[in-house]
Automatic annotation (TrEMBL):
Organism: Roseibium algae
GO molecular function: hydrolase activity
Protein name: Serine hydrolase domain-containing protein
InterPro entries per the UniProt record, alphabetical: Beta-lactam-related, Beta-lactam/transpept-like, Diverse_Enzym_Activities
Keywords carried by this UniProt record: Hydrolase
Upper classification of the organism: Bacteria, Pseudomonadati, Pseudomonadota, Alphaproteobacteria, Hyphomicrobiales
EC number(s) reported in the record: 3.1.1.103
SUPFAM superfamilies assigned to the protein according to its UniProt record, in alphabetical order: beta-lactamase/transpeptidase-like (SSF56601)
Length: 519
Protein backbone atom coordinates (compact mmCIF):
# COMPACT_ATOMS: atom_id res chain seq x y z
CA UNK A 1 0.00 0.00 0.00
CA UNK A 2 1.30 3.48 -0.83
CA UNK A 3 0.43 6.16 1.73
CA UNK A 4 0.43 9.96 1.37
CA UNK A 5 3.94 10.11 2.84
CA UNK A 6 5.16 7.86 0.01
CA UNK A 7 5.88 4.73 2.06
CA UNK A 8 4.74 1.31 0.98
CA UNK A 9 3.51 -0.39 4.15
CA UNK A 10 3.54 -4.15 4.60
CA UNK A 11 3.26 -6.08 7.83
CA UNK A 12 6.05 -8.66 7.89
CA UNK A 13 4.60 -12.13 7.76
CA UNK A 14 1.69 -11.21 5.50
CA UNK A 15 1.40 -11.12 1.73
CA UNK A 16 4.82 -10.74 0.15
CA UNK A 17 6.64 -10.53 3.46
CA UNK A 18 9.39 -12.78 2.18
CA UNK A 19 10.36 -10.07 -0.30
CA UNK A 20 12.11 -8.16 2.48
CA UNK A 21 12.94 -11.33 4.41
CA UNK A 22 12.71 -10.07 8.01
CA UNK A 23 11.12 -12.29 10.61
CA UNK A 24 8.33 -10.30 12.31
CA UNK A 25 9.02 -12.15 15.56
CA UNK A 26 12.29 -10.20 15.74
CA UNK A 27 10.36 -6.93 15.60
CA UNK A 28 8.04 -8.13 18.34
CA UNK A 29 11.04 -9.10 20.46
CA UNK A 30 12.45 -5.61 19.92
CA UNK A 31 9.21 -3.97 21.13
CA UNK A 32 9.12 -6.30 24.13
CA UNK A 33 12.72 -5.51 25.03
CA UNK A 34 12.05 -1.78 24.80
CA UNK A 35 9.14 -2.25 27.21
CA UNK A 36 11.16 -4.42 29.62
CA UNK A 37 13.99 -1.88 29.69
CA UNK A 38 11.47 0.94 30.22
CA UNK A 39 12.99 2.99 27.42
CA UNK A 40 10.98 6.08 26.52
CA UNK A 41 10.47 5.70 22.78
CA UNK A 42 8.30 8.15 20.87
CA UNK A 43 8.48 6.57 17.41
CA UNK A 44 10.26 3.72 15.66
CA UNK A 45 10.21 3.22 11.89
CA UNK A 46 12.02 0.41 10.05
CA UNK A 47 12.28 0.37 6.25
CA UNK A 48 13.80 -2.45 4.24
CA UNK A 49 13.86 -3.27 0.54
CA UNK A 50 11.24 -0.69 -0.43
CA UNK A 51 8.79 -1.42 2.40
CA UNK A 52 8.04 0.16 5.76
CA UNK A 53 7.93 -3.05 7.80
CA UNK A 54 7.48 -1.45 11.24
CA UNK A 55 5.80 1.83 12.11
CA UNK A 56 5.34 2.26 15.87
CA UNK A 57 4.33 5.37 17.83
CA UNK A 58 4.01 5.67 21.57
CA UNK A 59 1.03 7.86 22.44
CA UNK A 60 0.65 10.83 22.69
CA UNK A 61 3.20 10.88 19.85
CA UNK A 62 1.98 9.98 16.37
CA UNK A 63 2.73 10.02 12.62
CA UNK A 64 1.53 13.60 12.10
CA UNK A 65 3.36 15.01 15.12
CA UNK A 66 6.39 17.24 14.57
CA UNK A 67 9.35 16.41 16.79
CA UNK A 68 12.25 18.65 17.72
CA UNK A 69 15.52 17.42 16.22
CA UNK A 70 18.74 18.24 18.00
CA UNK A 71 22.00 17.27 16.25
CA UNK A 72 20.10 15.25 13.64
CA UNK A 73 19.67 18.74 12.18
CA UNK A 74 23.34 18.76 11.19
CA UNK A 75 22.73 16.14 8.50
CA UNK A 76 19.95 18.32 7.00
CA UNK A 77 22.39 21.24 6.94
CA UNK A 78 24.90 19.02 5.14
CA UNK A 79 22.39 18.63 2.30
CA UNK A 80 22.23 22.41 1.87
CA UNK A 81 26.03 22.57 1.64
CA UNK A 82 25.86 19.77 -0.91
CA UNK A 83 23.38 21.67 -3.05
CA UNK A 84 25.57 24.78 -3.02
CA UNK A 85 28.58 22.59 -3.85
CA UNK A 86 26.70 20.98 -6.75
CA UNK A 87 25.65 24.44 -7.96
CA UNK A 88 29.29 25.59 -7.99
CA UNK A 89 28.67 28.28 -5.38
CA UNK A 90 31.37 27.16 -2.96
CA UNK A 91 34.44 24.97 -2.66
CA UNK A 92 35.55 22.79 0.23
CA UNK A 93 38.90 24.59 0.19
CA UNK A 94 37.35 28.04 0.67
CA UNK A 95 38.60 29.95 3.72
CA UNK A 96 35.82 30.38 6.26
CA UNK A 97 36.84 33.94 7.16
CA UNK A 98 36.47 35.03 3.54
CA UNK A 99 32.69 34.67 3.91
CA UNK A 100 32.73 37.01 6.93
CA UNK A 101 35.24 39.79 6.19
CA UNK A 102 33.44 42.15 8.61
CA UNK A 103 34.65 40.00 11.52
CA UNK A 104 38.31 39.77 10.49
CA UNK A 105 39.39 42.35 13.09
CA UNK A 106 37.95 40.33 15.99
CA UNK A 107 38.77 36.86 14.62
CA UNK A 108 41.20 34.52 16.37
CA UNK A 109 44.82 34.30 15.37
CA UNK A 110 45.26 31.68 12.66
CA UNK A 111 41.66 31.93 11.40
CA UNK A 112 42.90 32.10 7.80
CA UNK A 113 43.92 28.42 8.01
CA UNK A 114 40.34 27.22 8.68
CA UNK A 115 38.67 25.90 5.51
CA UNK A 116 35.11 24.91 4.73
CA UNK A 117 36.02 21.21 4.79
CA UNK A 118 37.25 21.64 8.37
CA UNK A 119 33.90 22.87 9.69
CA UNK A 120 32.16 20.12 7.69
CA UNK A 121 34.23 17.45 9.47
CA UNK A 122 34.37 19.07 12.94
CA UNK A 123 38.13 19.63 12.67
CA UNK A 124 37.98 23.43 12.89
CA UNK A 125 41.00 23.74 15.19
CA UNK A 126 39.00 24.74 18.27
CA UNK A 127 39.79 23.08 21.60
CA UNK A 128 36.15 22.78 22.70
CA UNK A 129 32.82 22.71 20.90
CA UNK A 130 29.93 25.10 21.50
CA UNK A 131 26.53 23.62 22.34
CA UNK A 132 23.26 25.13 21.19
CA UNK A 133 22.41 25.47 24.89
CA UNK A 134 25.07 28.19 25.15
CA UNK A 135 24.21 30.11 22.00
CA UNK A 136 20.48 30.22 22.71
CA UNK A 137 21.40 32.66 25.48
CA UNK A 138 23.54 34.78 23.13
CA UNK A 139 21.79 37.75 21.51
CA UNK A 140 24.82 39.04 19.57
CA UNK A 141 26.35 37.59 16.38
CA UNK A 142 26.89 33.84 16.61
CA UNK A 143 29.23 33.94 13.61
CA UNK A 144 31.46 36.55 15.23
CA UNK A 145 31.57 34.53 18.45
CA UNK A 146 32.63 31.40 16.55
CA UNK A 147 35.35 33.17 14.62
CA UNK A 148 36.76 34.70 17.81
CA UNK A 149 37.23 31.34 19.56
CA UNK A 150 40.93 30.46 20.04
CA UNK A 151 42.40 28.07 17.49
CA UNK A 152 44.46 25.60 19.52
CA UNK A 153 44.94 22.83 16.93
CA UNK A 154 45.97 22.91 13.31
CA UNK A 155 42.64 22.82 11.41
CA UNK A 156 42.09 19.35 10.00
CA UNK A 157 44.12 17.56 12.68
CA UNK A 158 41.78 17.07 15.67
CA UNK A 159 38.07 16.20 15.74
CA UNK A 160 36.13 18.31 18.27
CA UNK A 161 32.36 17.98 18.13
CA UNK A 162 30.89 21.46 17.74
CA UNK A 163 27.32 22.57 16.93
CA UNK A 164 28.78 25.98 16.09
CA UNK A 165 30.55 24.45 13.07
CA UNK A 166 27.16 23.45 11.70
CA UNK A 167 25.78 26.93 12.28
CA UNK A 168 28.66 28.38 10.27
CA UNK A 169 27.78 26.05 7.41
CA UNK A 170 24.20 27.35 7.45
CA UNK A 171 25.47 30.94 7.54
CA UNK A 172 27.86 30.36 4.62
CA UNK A 173 25.17 28.74 2.48
CA UNK A 174 22.82 31.63 3.22
CA UNK A 175 25.46 34.11 2.08
CA UNK A 176 26.10 32.36 -1.22
CA UNK A 177 22.48 31.56 -2.14
CA UNK A 178 20.80 34.65 -0.65
CA UNK A 179 18.20 32.79 1.43
CA UNK A 180 18.03 30.52 4.46
CA UNK A 181 19.01 26.87 4.22
CA UNK A 182 15.39 26.03 5.14
CA UNK A 183 14.07 27.90 2.09
CA UNK A 184 16.82 26.44 -0.09
CA UNK A 185 16.07 22.89 1.02
CA UNK A 186 12.32 23.43 0.81
CA UNK A 187 12.54 24.14 -2.92
CA UNK A 188 15.27 21.68 -3.88
CA UNK A 189 14.81 18.76 -1.46
CA UNK A 190 11.77 18.90 0.81
CA UNK A 191 9.11 19.61 -1.83
CA UNK A 192 10.42 17.11 -4.43
CA UNK A 193 10.53 14.43 -1.72
CA UNK A 194 7.08 15.29 -0.40
CA UNK A 195 8.26 16.10 3.13
CA UNK A 196 5.74 17.76 5.41
CA UNK A 197 5.02 21.44 4.75
CA UNK A 198 5.01 22.05 8.50
CA UNK A 199 8.78 21.56 8.91
CA UNK A 200 10.19 24.53 10.81
CA UNK A 201 13.69 25.59 11.80
CA UNK A 202 14.87 27.96 14.52
CA UNK A 203 16.66 31.19 13.61
CA UNK A 204 19.65 32.89 15.23
CA UNK A 205 19.70 36.61 16.14
CA UNK A 206 21.28 37.08 12.69
CA UNK A 207 18.30 35.52 10.93
CA UNK A 208 20.22 32.33 10.04
CA UNK A 209 18.85 28.84 10.61
CA UNK A 210 20.55 27.33 13.65
CA UNK A 211 22.32 24.70 11.55
CA UNK A 212 23.30 22.24 14.25
CA UNK A 213 19.92 21.88 15.95
CA UNK A 214 16.44 23.35 16.14
CA UNK A 215 14.77 21.67 13.14
CA UNK A 216 11.26 20.27 13.73
CA UNK A 217 9.94 17.52 11.45
CA UNK A 218 7.96 14.27 11.42
CA UNK A 219 9.52 10.89 12.05
CA UNK A 220 8.74 9.95 8.42
CA UNK A 221 10.75 12.99 7.26
CA UNK A 222 13.67 11.73 9.32
CA UNK A 223 13.40 8.30 7.72
CA UNK A 224 13.32 9.88 4.25
CA UNK A 225 16.56 11.72 5.03
CA UNK A 226 18.22 8.33 5.38
CA UNK A 227 16.52 6.91 2.31
CA UNK A 228 17.77 9.74 0.10
CA UNK A 229 21.35 9.06 1.21
CA UNK A 230 20.96 5.29 0.93
CA UNK A 231 19.98 5.93 -2.70
CA UNK A 232 23.02 8.18 -3.34
CA UNK A 233 20.90 11.32 -3.64
CA UNK A 234 18.30 9.92 -6.04
CA UNK A 235 14.58 10.15 -5.39
CA UNK A 236 11.90 8.69 -7.67
CA UNK A 237 14.27 8.71 -10.61
CA UNK A 238 15.51 12.28 -10.03
CA UNK A 239 19.01 13.15 -8.82
CA UNK A 240 18.33 15.71 -6.04
CA UNK A 241 21.88 15.63 -4.66
CA UNK A 242 24.88 14.55 -6.69
CA UNK A 243 26.10 11.05 -5.95
CA UNK A 244 29.59 12.56 -5.59
CA UNK A 245 28.43 14.70 -2.69
CA UNK A 246 26.35 12.03 -0.99
CA UNK A 247 29.11 9.44 -1.07
CA UNK A 248 31.54 11.93 0.44
CA UNK A 249 29.02 13.08 3.06
CA UNK A 250 28.21 9.58 4.32
CA UNK A 251 31.78 8.34 3.90
CA UNK A 252 34.56 8.03 6.46
CA UNK A 253 36.21 11.45 6.34
CA UNK A 254 37.71 11.20 9.85
CA UNK A 255 38.42 7.91 11.65
CA UNK A 256 38.30 6.95 15.33
CA UNK A 257 36.84 10.16 16.73
CA UNK A 258 35.89 11.27 20.23
CA UNK A 259 32.52 12.74 21.18
CA UNK A 260 33.55 15.08 23.99
CA UNK A 261 31.54 15.19 27.22
CA UNK A 262 28.65 17.68 27.04
CA UNK A 263 28.62 20.04 30.03
CA UNK A 264 25.34 21.64 28.93
CA UNK A 265 26.99 24.55 27.12
CA UNK A 266 30.17 23.04 25.68
CA UNK A 267 31.57 19.80 24.31
CA UNK A 268 34.90 19.10 26.00
CA UNK A 269 37.98 18.27 23.99
CA UNK A 270 38.94 14.66 23.18
CA UNK A 271 41.49 14.41 26.00
CA UNK A 272 39.27 15.95 28.67
CA UNK A 273 37.17 14.02 31.18
CA UNK A 274 34.35 15.18 33.43
CA UNK A 275 33.51 13.66 36.79
CA UNK A 276 35.76 10.74 35.98
CA UNK A 277 33.88 10.01 32.73
CA UNK A 278 36.07 9.81 29.64
CA UNK A 279 35.04 10.90 26.17
CA UNK A 280 33.13 8.36 24.08
CA UNK A 281 34.99 6.91 21.12
CA UNK A 282 33.15 6.43 17.83
CA UNK A 283 34.06 4.84 14.50
CA UNK A 284 34.29 8.02 12.47
CA UNK A 285 32.64 11.02 10.87
CA UNK A 286 31.72 12.22 7.39
CA UNK A 287 30.25 15.56 6.37
CA UNK A 288 27.89 16.02 9.35
CA UNK A 289 27.10 12.29 9.40
CA UNK A 290 28.39 9.72 11.89
CA UNK A 291 29.98 6.45 10.86
CA UNK A 292 28.99 3.52 13.08
CA UNK A 293 29.04 -0.23 13.67
CA UNK A 294 28.12 -2.68 10.89
CA UNK A 295 29.36 -0.21 8.25
CA UNK A 296 26.41 2.05 9.07
CA UNK A 297 26.09 5.80 8.82
CA UNK A 298 23.68 7.86 10.85
CA UNK A 299 22.23 11.21 11.78
CA UNK A 300 22.12 11.38 15.56
CA UNK A 301 20.68 13.86 18.03
CA UNK A 302 20.76 14.53 21.77
CA UNK A 303 18.03 12.88 23.84
CA UNK A 304 17.32 10.14 21.31
CA UNK A 305 16.61 11.05 17.71
CA UNK A 306 18.40 9.03 15.08
CA UNK A 307 18.32 7.83 11.49
CA UNK A 308 20.56 4.80 10.96
CA UNK A 309 21.31 3.46 7.49
CA UNK A 310 22.57 -0.08 6.90
CA UNK A 311 23.62 -0.11 3.28
CA UNK A 312 24.53 -3.81 3.27
CA UNK A 313 20.98 -4.68 4.40
CA UNK A 314 19.25 -2.03 2.25
CA UNK A 315 17.57 -0.85 5.46
CA UNK A 316 16.89 2.42 7.28
CA UNK A 317 15.81 2.82 10.91
CA UNK A 318 14.51 6.08 12.32
CA UNK A 319 13.43 6.77 15.87
CA UNK A 320 12.61 9.60 18.26
CA UNK A 321 12.73 9.28 22.03
CA UNK A 322 13.50 10.78 25.39
CA UNK A 323 16.71 8.90 26.21
CA UNK A 324 19.99 9.97 27.81
CA UNK A 325 22.78 10.41 25.30
CA UNK A 326 25.01 8.02 27.23
CA UNK A 327 22.28 5.35 27.36
CA UNK A 328 23.34 2.85 24.68
CA UNK A 329 20.68 0.18 25.31
CA UNK A 330 18.50 0.97 22.29
CA UNK A 331 21.48 1.26 19.96
CA UNK A 332 22.81 -2.06 21.26
CA UNK A 333 19.44 -3.68 20.51
CA UNK A 334 19.53 -2.30 16.97
CA UNK A 335 23.14 -3.16 16.16
CA UNK A 336 23.49 -6.45 18.06
CA UNK A 337 20.00 -7.97 17.85
CA UNK A 338 18.04 -6.38 15.00
CA UNK A 339 20.83 -5.94 12.45
CA UNK A 340 21.80 -9.65 12.19
CA UNK A 341 18.10 -10.59 11.88
CA UNK A 342 17.38 -8.28 8.95
CA UNK A 343 16.87 -10.67 6.06
CA UNK A 344 16.28 -13.76 8.20
CA UNK A 345 12.82 -15.19 7.48
CA UNK A 346 11.00 -17.85 9.49
CA UNK A 347 7.40 -16.97 8.67
CA UNK A 348 5.97 -15.86 12.02
CA UNK A 349 3.13 -13.36 12.33
CA UNK A 350 3.47 -9.97 14.01
CA UNK A 351 0.61 -9.52 16.51
CA UNK A 352 -1.44 -6.36 16.14
CA UNK A 353 -0.26 -4.59 19.26
CA UNK A 354 1.11 -1.27 18.00
CA UNK A 355 -2.02 0.66 18.98
CA UNK A 356 -1.39 -0.15 22.66
CA UNK A 357 1.98 1.64 22.88
CA UNK A 358 2.02 4.65 25.17
CA UNK A 359 4.54 6.86 26.97
CA UNK A 360 3.93 6.71 30.76
CA UNK A 361 0.19 5.94 30.62
CA UNK A 362 -1.99 7.76 33.17
CA UNK A 363 -2.50 5.67 36.33
CA UNK A 364 -5.78 3.97 37.02
CA UNK A 365 -7.83 5.28 39.95
CA UNK A 366 -6.71 3.58 43.16
CA UNK A 367 -9.31 5.08 45.48
CA UNK A 368 -7.12 7.96 46.66
CA UNK A 369 -9.22 11.11 47.02
CA UNK A 370 -8.32 14.76 47.18
CA UNK A 371 -7.92 16.34 50.60
CA UNK A 372 -10.09 19.20 51.78
CA UNK A 373 -9.03 22.77 51.00
CA UNK A 374 -6.37 22.06 48.38
CA UNK A 375 -7.72 24.47 45.75
CA UNK A 376 -6.78 28.13 45.71
CA UNK A 377 -4.03 30.70 45.29
CA UNK A 378 -0.69 30.07 47.00
CA UNK A 379 1.88 32.81 47.59
CA UNK A 380 5.43 31.53 47.00
CA UNK A 381 8.38 32.14 49.26
CA UNK A 382 11.48 33.70 47.65
CA UNK A 383 13.02 31.25 45.19
CA UNK A 384 15.61 31.07 42.41
CA UNK A 385 12.94 30.42 39.76
CA UNK A 386 11.28 33.81 40.17
CA UNK A 387 7.92 32.18 40.94
CA UNK A 388 5.57 34.45 42.87
CA UNK A 389 2.41 32.35 43.04
CA UNK A 390 0.88 28.97 42.27
CA UNK A 391 -2.84 28.37 41.88
CA UNK A 392 -4.72 25.08 41.55
CA UNK A 393 -8.35 24.42 40.72
CA UNK A 394 -10.59 21.52 39.75
CA UNK A 395 -12.29 21.99 36.40
CA UNK A 396 -14.80 19.82 34.55
CA UNK A 397 -12.12 17.87 32.66
CA UNK A 398 -9.36 17.81 35.23
CA UNK A 399 -7.06 20.02 37.27
CA UNK A 400 -5.65 23.38 36.20
CA UNK A 401 -2.34 24.60 37.57
CA UNK A 402 -1.14 28.15 36.99
CA UNK A 403 2.33 29.36 37.85
CA UNK A 404 3.19 33.06 37.83
CA UNK A 405 6.82 34.14 37.51
CA UNK A 406 8.79 37.06 36.10
CA UNK A 407 7.92 35.93 32.54
CA UNK A 408 4.14 35.91 33.12
CA UNK A 409 1.38 33.42 33.90
CA UNK A 410 1.81 29.82 32.71
CA UNK A 411 -1.12 27.43 32.70
CA UNK A 412 -1.77 23.73 32.08
CA UNK A 413 -5.04 21.83 32.22
CA UNK A 414 -4.29 18.20 33.12
CA UNK A 415 -6.82 15.40 32.76
CA UNK A 416 -7.65 13.01 35.57
CA UNK A 417 -7.04 9.50 34.22
CA UNK A 418 -6.57 10.80 30.68
CA UNK A 419 -4.29 13.14 28.77
CA UNK A 420 -5.55 16.55 27.77
CA UNK A 421 -3.69 18.38 25.03
CA UNK A 422 -3.13 22.12 24.84
CA UNK A 423 -0.44 24.79 24.61
CA UNK A 424 1.66 26.10 27.47
CA UNK A 425 4.53 28.46 28.19
CA UNK A 426 5.42 26.61 31.38
CA UNK A 427 8.72 25.36 29.90
CA UNK A 428 11.78 25.95 32.08
CA UNK A 429 15.06 26.70 30.21
CA UNK A 430 17.25 25.13 32.88
CA UNK A 431 15.39 21.83 32.49
CA UNK A 432 14.99 21.97 28.71
CA UNK A 433 18.49 22.46 27.27
CA UNK A 434 18.03 26.27 27.32
CA UNK A 435 14.83 26.23 25.24
CA UNK A 436 12.11 28.62 26.43
CA UNK A 437 9.23 28.03 23.96
CA UNK A 438 8.07 31.61 24.50
CA UNK A 439 5.21 31.31 22.00
CA UNK A 440 4.01 28.16 23.69
CA UNK A 441 4.66 24.44 23.36
CA UNK A 442 2.19 21.65 22.70
CA UNK A 443 1.62 19.66 25.87
CA UNK A 444 -0.36 16.51 26.74
CA UNK A 445 -0.95 16.40 30.49
CA UNK A 446 -2.52 14.21 33.12
CA UNK A 447 -2.81 14.51 36.89
CA UNK A 448 -3.43 11.92 39.63
CA UNK A 449 -3.78 11.87 43.39
CA UNK A 450 -1.29 9.60 45.11
CA UNK A 451 -1.43 8.19 48.64
CA UNK A 452 -0.40 10.67 51.33
CA UNK A 453 3.16 10.56 52.65
CA UNK A 454 3.93 9.07 56.05
CA UNK A 455 4.01 12.53 57.60
CA UNK A 456 0.58 13.45 56.22
CA UNK A 457 1.29 15.43 53.03
CA UNK A 458 -1.32 14.82 50.32
CA UNK A 459 0.27 14.46 46.87
CA UNK A 460 -1.02 15.53 43.45
CA UNK A 461 1.31 14.44 40.64
CA UNK A 462 1.35 15.98 37.15
CA UNK A 463 2.83 14.47 33.98
CA UNK A 464 3.49 17.05 31.24
CA UNK A 465 4.60 15.60 27.90
CA UNK A 466 5.92 18.37 25.64
CA UNK A 467 4.82 16.37 22.64
CA UNK A 468 6.97 18.04 19.99
CA UNK A 469 10.14 17.52 22.02
CA UNK A 470 12.02 14.87 23.97
CA UNK A 471 11.08 16.50 27.27
CA UNK A 472 8.56 15.12 29.77
CA UNK A 473 8.19 16.94 33.09
CA UNK A 474 6.93 15.49 36.34
CA UNK A 475 5.59 17.98 38.89
CA UNK A 476 4.47 17.01 42.40
CA UNK A 477 2.33 19.22 44.61
CA UNK A 478 2.30 18.35 48.31
CA UNK A 479 -0.47 19.86 50.49
CA UNK A 480 -0.75 20.12 54.28
CA UNK A 481 -2.36 22.67 56.61
CA UNK A 482 -2.57 25.40 53.96
CA UNK A 483 1.01 24.88 52.79
CA UNK A 484 2.19 23.78 49.35
CA UNK A 485 5.46 22.21 48.28
CA UNK A 486 6.08 22.08 44.50
CA UNK A 487 8.75 19.79 43.08
CA UNK A 488 9.60 19.56 39.37
CA UNK A 489 11.92 17.35 37.34
CA UNK A 490 12.49 16.31 33.71
CA UNK A 491 13.22 13.00 32.00
CA UNK A 492 16.29 14.12 30.01
CA UNK A 493 18.47 17.20 29.94
CA UNK A 494 22.03 18.31 29.25
CA UNK A 495 22.46 19.69 32.78
CA UNK A 496 20.21 19.70 35.89
CA UNK A 497 17.05 17.60 35.93
CA UNK A 498 15.52 18.62 39.27
CA UNK A 499 14.63 22.17 40.29
CA UNK A 500 14.83 23.34 43.90
CA UNK A 501 11.55 22.88 45.77
CA UNK A 502 9.09 25.78 45.83
CA UNK A 503 7.27 26.45 49.10
CA UNK A 504 4.06 28.46 49.19
CA UNK A 505 1.22 29.39 51.55
CA UNK A 506 -2.50 29.38 50.76
CA UNK A 507 -3.76 32.96 50.40
CA UNK A 508 -7.32 32.49 49.15
CA UNK A 509 -9.26 29.26 48.98
CA UNK A 510 -11.36 28.46 45.91
CA UNK A 511 -14.99 27.97 46.88
CA UNK A 512 -16.60 24.83 45.46
CA UNK A 513 -19.73 25.23 43.38
CA UNK A 514 -22.82 23.51 44.68
CA UNK A 515 -22.68 19.80 43.93
CA UNK A 516 -19.13 19.91 42.53
CA UNK A 517 -17.20 16.68 43.02
CA UNK A 518 -13.49 16.70 43.65
CA UNK A 519 -11.38 14.57 41.32
Amino acid sequence: MNAPDGFRRQRPGSGDGEAHGTDPAVLLDLLDEIAREKLELHSLLIWQHGTLILEAYWQPYGPDRLHMMHSVTKSFTSMAVGLAFDDGLLSLDDRVIDYFPEFLATAAQGIETMRLRHVLTMTSGHGRGISGGAWRKLSSSWAEDFLSQPIVHTPGDVFVYDSACSYMLAAIVQRVVGRTVHDYLRERIFNPMGLTQEIRWDLSPEGVNSGGNGLWCRSSDLLNLGLLHLQDGQWCGKQLLSSEWVRAAKGMQVRDVSLGFLTGEAYLGPEESFGGVSAERREGYGFQWWRGPNESFSASGLFGQSCIVFEQKNAVIAFTAGIDDEDRRLLNMIHKDLYPALGQWRGAELPARLDALEVAPPPRADGTVAPASWQGLYHAENNDQGITSVSLAHEAQGVRIEIVDERGCHSILAGIGQRLEGTTTIAEPRLHHAYEFGEGARVAAWAAWQPATKDGWACLVFDWVLVETAFRDTARCYFKDGCLRLQREVNVNSSIRILPEIRATLQSEKALASGETLP
